[in-house]
Design goal:
Layout (H helix, E strand, L loop, with lengths): L3 H11 L2 E2 H8 L3 H17 L4 E4 L2 E2 L26 E2 L2 E4 L1
Antiparallel strand pairs: 1-5, 2-5, 3-4
Length: about 90
């Protein structure tokens, strides 16, 4: 039986997903997915692979959070103050 991190890696090697989709596929909380992602990135770097992050974006104005270091979803847009934020997406290259 694979660990949760191994299963997340398998999912992300197959296709691009956000934390909510991963949490639904594995029946774990979204917060747990966000907790595992930094560890997965570190493990992948040792294997010569990389966790690719497609940044979150504002649905209302289109602002892209490209300089954000955290993997979690931002609370609101700094431009228009909207809370309608599309989740960041992840994949493995």
């Amino acid at each position: 039986m694979a660990t949760i991190r191994q299963r997340i890696i398998e999912i992300l090697e197959y296709d691009e997903h956000d934390a909510r989709q991963i949490s639904q596929l594995l029946s774990i909380s979204e917060k747990d997915v966000y907790d595992h992602l930094p560890h997965i990135a570190k493990s992948l770097s040792k294997q010569g692979k990389k966790l690719k992050t497609i940044p979150a974006s504002c649905i209302a104005c289109g602002y892209v959070f490209k300089n954000r270091d955290r993997v979690t979803r931002p609370g609101k847009c700094p431009v228009c103050k909207s809370e309608r934020i599309e989740n960041p997406r992840f994949s493995i290259k």
